[in-house]
Protein backbone atom coordinates (compact mmCIF):
# COMPACT_ATOMS: atom_id res chain seq x y z
CA UNK A 1 0.00 0.00 0.00
CA UNK A 2 3.05 2.29 -0.22
CA UNK A 3 1.67 3.82 -3.42
CA UNK A 4 -1.59 4.70 -1.62
CA UNK A 5 0.29 6.56 1.15
CA UNK A 6 2.39 8.31 -1.45
CA UNK A 7 -0.73 9.24 -3.38
CA UNK A 8 -2.21 10.84 -0.26
CA UNK A 9 1.03 12.72 0.45
CA UNK A 10 1.22 13.80 -3.18
CA UNK A 11 -2.41 14.91 -3.20
CA UNK A 12 -1.95 16.92 0.01
CA UNK A 13 1.26 18.43 -1.36
CA UNK A 14 -0.46 19.27 -4.64
CA UNK A 15 -3.37 20.89 -2.81
CA UNK A 16 -0.99 22.92 -0.65
CA UNK A 17 0.79 23.99 -3.82
CA UNK A 18 -2.51 25.04 -5.37
CA UNK A 19 -3.39 27.08 -2.26
CA UNK A 20 -0.02 28.81 -2.20
CA UNK A 21 -0.25 29.52 -5.95
CA UNK A 22 -3.72 31.01 -5.62
CA UNK A 23 -2.56 33.14 -2.67
CA UNK A 24 0.54 34.45 -4.40
CA UNK A 25 -1.31 35.01 -7.68
CA UNK A 26 -3.25 37.95 -6.31
CA UNK A 27 -2.74 39.19 -2.75
CA UNK A 28 -5.94 41.22 -2.92
CA UNK A 29 -8.17 38.33 -4.02
CA UNK A 30 -11.08 37.78 -1.68
CA UNK A 31 -14.23 35.79 -2.34
CA UNK A 32 -16.33 38.68 -1.02
CA UNK A 33 -15.25 40.99 -3.85
CA UNK A 34 -18.09 40.48 -6.32
CA UNK A 35 -21.04 42.22 -7.90
CA UNK A 36 -23.71 42.66 -5.27
CA UNK A 37 -26.94 40.95 -6.30
CA UNK A 38 -30.11 41.84 -4.44
CA UNK A 39 -30.40 38.32 -3.07
CA UNK A 40 -30.44 37.38 0.62
CA UNK A 41 -28.90 33.97 -0.16
CA UNK A 42 -25.79 35.58 -1.58
CA UNK A 43 -24.77 37.16 1.73
CA UNK A 44 -21.40 36.07 2.97
CA UNK A 45 -19.23 36.10 6.07
CA UNK A 46 -16.07 37.87 4.92
CA UNK A 47 -13.05 36.85 6.99
CA UNK A 48 -9.69 38.59 7.02
CA UNK A 49 -6.49 38.09 8.99
CA UNK A 50 -4.61 41.31 9.58
CA UNK A 51 -1.08 41.39 10.96
CA UNK A 52 -0.07 44.93 11.98
CA UNK A 53 3.72 45.14 11.97
CA UNK A 54 6.72 47.05 10.76
CA UNK A 55 7.21 47.04 7.02
CA UNK A 56 10.23 44.93 6.20
CA UNK A 57 11.79 47.24 3.62
CA UNK A 58 12.85 50.61 5.07
CA UNK A 59 11.52 53.71 3.28
CA UNK A 60 14.01 55.85 1.44
CA UNK A 61 13.26 59.28 2.79
CA UNK A 62 15.66 62.15 2.50
CA UNK A 63 16.08 63.94 5.75
CA UNK A 64 16.79 67.56 4.94
CA UNK A 65 15.01 69.14 7.89
CA UNK A 66 16.59 72.11 9.60
CA UNK A 67 13.93 72.22 12.30
CA UNK A 68 15.49 73.03 15.64
CA UNK A 69 13.09 70.67 17.44
CA UNK A 70 14.31 67.71 15.44
CA UNK A 71 17.51 66.29 16.75
CA UNK A 72 20.75 65.57 14.97
CA UNK A 73 20.36 61.82 15.33
CA UNK A 74 17.38 61.59 12.97
CA UNK A 75 19.40 59.67 10.39
CA UNK A 76 20.05 56.91 12.90
CA UNK A 77 16.35 56.73 13.72
CA UNK A 78 15.41 56.42 10.05
CA UNK A 79 17.96 53.76 9.30
CA UNK A 80 17.10 51.56 12.25
CA UNK A 81 13.30 51.72 12.11
CA UNK A 82 10.77 51.37 9.37
CA UNK A 83 7.20 52.46 8.90
CA UNK A 84 4.18 50.29 9.64
CA UNK A 85 1.68 48.36 7.59
CA UNK A 86 -0.80 45.51 7.55
CA UNK A 87 0.17 42.16 6.05
CA UNK A 88 3.37 43.79 4.82
CA UNK A 89 1.86 46.75 3.02
CA UNK A 90 0.45 50.22 3.49
CA UNK A 91 -2.36 50.98 2.79
CA UNK A 92 -3.57 47.68 4.20
CA UNK A 93 -5.79 45.24 2.25
CA UNK A 94 -8.90 46.75 0.69
CA UNK A 95 -12.05 45.42 2.30
CA UNK A 96 -14.85 45.25 -0.27
CA UNK A 97 -18.15 43.65 0.68
CA UNK A 98 -21.84 43.73 -0.18
CA UNK A 99 -24.56 45.12 2.07
CA UNK A 100 -25.81 42.23 4.21
CA UNK A 101 -22.38 40.62 4.51
CA UNK A 102 -20.72 40.20 7.88
CA UNK A 103 -17.09 41.28 8.16
CA UNK A 104 -14.81 39.44 10.57
CA UNK A 105 -11.29 40.71 11.02
CA UNK A 106 -8.84 38.86 13.18
CA UNK A 107 -6.31 41.55 14.03
CA UNK A 108 -2.93 40.52 15.39
CA UNK A 109 -0.64 42.99 17.10
CA UNK A 110 2.93 42.45 15.90
CA UNK A 111 4.13 45.97 16.71
CA UNK A 112 6.71 44.90 19.27
CA UNK A 113 6.01 46.68 22.53
CA UNK A 114 3.10 48.88 21.40
CA UNK A 115 -0.58 48.43 22.12
CA UNK A 116 -3.10 48.52 19.26
CA UNK A 117 -6.78 48.95 18.45
CA UNK A 118 -8.67 49.61 15.20
CA UNK A 119 -11.34 52.18 14.45
CA UNK A 120 -13.83 51.65 11.61
CA UNK A 121 -14.58 55.17 10.54
CA UNK A 122 -18.15 55.87 9.49
CA UNK A 123 -19.50 52.49 10.64
CA UNK A 124 -22.50 52.72 12.94
CA UNK A 125 -21.84 50.65 16.03
CA UNK A 126 -25.31 50.07 17.39
CA UNK A 127 -24.89 47.61 20.31
CA UNK A 128 -21.25 47.14 19.35
CA UNK A 129 -19.42 50.11 20.90
CA UNK A 130 -16.83 47.65 22.20
CA UNK A 131 -15.40 47.34 18.70
CA UNK A 132 -15.25 51.06 17.90
CA UNK A 133 -11.55 51.02 18.73
CA UNK A 134 -11.04 53.81 21.26
CA UNK A 135 -8.35 52.30 23.48
CA UNK A 136 -9.26 52.07 27.17
CA UNK A 137 -12.62 53.76 26.54
CA UNK A 138 -14.63 51.38 24.36
CA UNK A 139 -12.18 48.49 24.30
CA UNK A 140 -9.07 47.26 26.02
CA UNK A 141 -6.05 47.65 23.78
CA UNK A 142 -4.70 44.61 21.99
CA UNK A 143 -1.48 43.84 23.81
CA UNK A 144 1.76 43.03 21.98
CA UNK A 145 1.56 39.56 20.39
CA UNK A 146 -2.15 39.44 21.18
CA UNK A 147 -5.13 39.45 18.83
CA UNK A 148 -8.75 40.58 18.72
CA UNK A 149 -11.70 39.58 16.56
CA UNK A 150 -13.64 42.51 15.14
CA UNK A 151 -17.08 41.67 13.79
CA UNK A 152 -18.91 44.28 11.72
CA UNK A 153 -22.33 44.18 10.15
CA UNK A 154 -22.58 47.28 7.92
CA UNK A 155 -25.99 48.93 7.92
CA UNK A 156 -25.48 51.12 4.86
CA UNK A 157 -23.65 51.06 1.57
CA UNK A 158 -20.79 53.54 1.50
CA UNK A 159 -17.12 54.41 1.59
CA UNK A 160 -15.41 53.86 4.89
CA UNK A 161 -11.90 53.40 6.23
CA UNK A 162 -10.16 51.64 9.03
CA UNK A 163 -7.08 52.76 10.91
CA UNK A 164 -5.15 52.30 14.11
CA UNK A 165 -6.76 54.56 16.67
CA UNK A 166 -3.38 55.63 18.07
CA UNK A 167 -2.63 58.49 15.70
CA UNK A 168 1.12 57.85 15.49
CA UNK A 169 0.44 54.31 14.22
CA UNK A 170 -2.05 55.63 11.70
CA UNK A 171 0.49 58.25 10.56
CA UNK A 172 3.09 55.52 10.11
CA UNK A 173 0.87 53.52 7.74
CA UNK A 174 -1.77 51.48 9.60
CA UNK A 175 -4.91 52.30 7.59
CA UNK A 176 -6.95 51.05 4.66
CA UNK A 177 -10.24 51.36 2.79
CA UNK A 178 -13.54 49.63 3.47
CA UNK A 179 -16.25 49.69 0.79
CA UNK A 180 -19.80 48.44 1.18
CA UNK A 181 -21.73 48.10 -2.08
CA UNK A 182 -25.33 47.41 -2.99
CA UNK A 183 -27.01 46.11 -6.16
CA UNK A 184 -26.98 49.66 -7.55
CA UNK A 185 -23.16 49.89 -7.49
CA UNK A 186 -21.10 48.77 -10.47
CA UNK A 187 -17.59 47.99 -9.23
CA UNK A 188 -16.12 48.32 -12.73
CA UNK A 189 -17.11 52.00 -12.79
CA UNK A 190 -15.53 52.85 -9.45
CA UNK A 191 -12.06 53.87 -8.37
CA UNK A 192 -10.76 54.09 -4.83
CA UNK A 193 -8.48 57.06 -4.15
CA UNK A 194 -6.85 56.92 -0.75
CA UNK A 195 -4.97 60.04 0.30
CA UNK A 196 -2.41 59.94 3.08
CA UNK A 197 0.98 61.32 3.96
CA UNK A 198 4.27 60.10 5.34
CA UNK A 199 6.44 61.98 7.81
CA UNK A 200 10.21 62.17 7.59
CA UNK A 201 10.53 60.05 10.74
CA UNK A 202 8.17 57.27 11.89
CA UNK A 203 5.84 58.97 14.38
CA UNK A 204 5.85 55.90 16.64
CA UNK A 205 9.58 56.50 17.17
CA UNK A 206 9.32 60.24 17.64
CA UNK A 207 9.75 61.45 21.18
CA UNK A 208 9.77 65.22 20.70
CA UNK A 209 6.95 67.58 21.58
CA UNK A 210 6.35 68.98 18.08
CA UNK A 211 5.42 66.53 15.37
CA UNK A 212 7.53 66.58 12.21
CA UNK A 213 5.68 67.93 9.18
CA UNK A 214 4.67 65.31 6.60
CA UNK A 215 7.28 64.92 3.91
CA UNK A 216 5.26 63.15 1.23
CA UNK A 217 1.64 63.17 0.08
CA UNK A 218 0.62 59.65 -0.93
CA UNK A 219 -2.10 58.55 -3.34
CA UNK A 220 -3.00 54.88 -2.87
CA UNK A 221 0.31 54.53 -1.05
CA UNK A 222 2.38 55.92 -3.96
CA UNK A 223 4.54 59.01 -3.58
CA UNK A 224 5.50 59.38 -7.22
CA UNK A 225 2.16 59.49 -9.01
CA UNK A 226 -0.64 57.04 -9.44
CA UNK A 227 -2.16 56.22 -12.84
CA UNK A 228 -5.92 55.86 -12.93
CA UNK A 229 -7.02 54.26 -16.21
CA UNK A 230 -10.44 55.31 -17.48
CA UNK A 231 -12.45 55.00 -20.68
CA UNK A 232 -13.12 58.24 -22.48
CA UNK A 233 -16.69 59.51 -22.04
CA UNK A 234 -17.54 57.13 -19.19
CA UNK A 235 -18.85 58.35 -15.86
CA UNK A 236 -16.91 57.07 -12.86
CA UNK A 237 -17.51 57.05 -9.15
CA UNK A 238 -14.47 57.99 -7.12
CA UNK A 239 -14.36 56.77 -3.56
CA UNK A 240 -12.13 59.40 -2.02
CA UNK A 241 -10.68 58.64 1.39
CA UNK A 242 -8.51 61.00 3.38
CA UNK A 243 -6.54 58.81 5.78
CA UNK A 244 -4.13 61.58 6.69
CA UNK A 245 -3.12 61.55 10.34
CA UNK A 246 -2.33 65.27 10.15
CA UNK A 247 -4.96 67.95 10.46
CA UNK A 248 -4.31 69.17 6.96
CA UNK A 249 -7.02 69.36 4.26
CA UNK A 250 -6.17 68.30 0.70
CA UNK A 251 -7.63 70.00 -2.36
CA UNK A 252 -8.31 67.57 -5.19
CA UNK A 253 -9.12 68.57 -8.75
CA UNK A 254 -8.88 66.85 -12.13
CA UNK A 255 -7.98 69.16 -14.96
CA UNK A 256 -11.00 70.03 -17.09
CA UNK A 257 -13.51 67.97 -15.12
CA UNK A 258 -16.38 68.79 -12.81
CA UNK A 259 -17.34 66.72 -9.81
CA UNK A 260 -20.60 65.89 -8.17
CA UNK A 261 -20.21 65.15 -4.46
CA UNK A 262 -22.78 62.43 -3.72
CA UNK A 263 -21.97 61.17 -0.23
CA UNK A 264 -19.79 61.96 2.76
CA UNK A 265 -18.86 59.39 5.38
CA UNK A 266 -21.34 56.85 4.09
CA UNK A 267 -24.25 59.31 4.09
CA UNK A 268 -25.87 60.61 0.91
CA UNK A 269 -25.82 64.37 0.48
CA UNK A 270 -27.65 66.72 -1.88
CA UNK A 271 -25.50 66.33 -5.02
CA UNK A 272 -23.19 69.34 -5.19
CA UNK A 273 -21.22 70.23 -8.29
CA UNK A 274 -17.79 71.84 -8.33
CA UNK A 275 -14.36 71.92 -9.91
CA UNK A 276 -12.53 70.66 -6.86
CA UNK A 277 -13.10 68.87 -3.59
CA UNK A 278 -11.47 69.91 -0.33
CA UNK A 279 -11.00 66.70 1.54
CA UNK A 280 -10.55 66.81 5.30
CA UNK A 281 -8.66 64.17 7.26
CA UNK A 282 -10.67 61.16 8.30
CA UNK A 283 -13.53 61.93 5.95
CA UNK A 284 -14.63 59.84 3.00
CA UNK A 285 -16.42 61.15 -0.09
CA UNK A 286 -18.13 59.61 -3.08
CA UNK A 287 -17.81 61.84 -6.09
CA UNK A 288 -18.87 61.33 -9.69
CA UNK A 289 -17.01 62.77 -12.60
CA UNK A 290 -17.33 62.61 -16.34
CU1 LIG B 1 -14.51 57.77 13.09
UniProtKB/TrEMBL annotation:
SUPFAM superfamilies: Cupredoxins. Keywords: Copper, Metal-binding, Oxidoreductase, Signal. Pfam families: Cu-oxidase (PF00394), Cu-oxidase_3 (PF07732). It comes from the Eukaryota. Residues 1-22 form the signal peptide. Residues 80-184, 211-272 form the Plastocyanin-like domain. GO terms for molecular function: copper ion binding; oxidoreductase activity. Transmembrane segments: none annotated. Belongs to the multicopper oxidase family. This is Uncharacterized protein.
